[in-house]
Amino acid sequence: MCDDHPDRPAVVRIQGEAEAFGAKMLDVCQECLDDLPLGEL
Ligand SMILES: [Zn+2]
Questions:
Q1: Residues 19-41: what's their mean pLDDT?
Q2: Rounded to two decimals, what is the model's pTM?
Q3: What are the domain boundaries of the chain?
């Protein structure tokens, strides 16, 4: 499920910034994906 929209299925899992306990994984739906800056992917 999307982290921001619990009612929507995630379409992709991306790796966020590395943190003390490891890289944070983000599940995002298509709408959230469209809002993300994806230059690094
Ligand atoms: Zn979303």
A1: 81
A2: 0.65
A3: 1-41
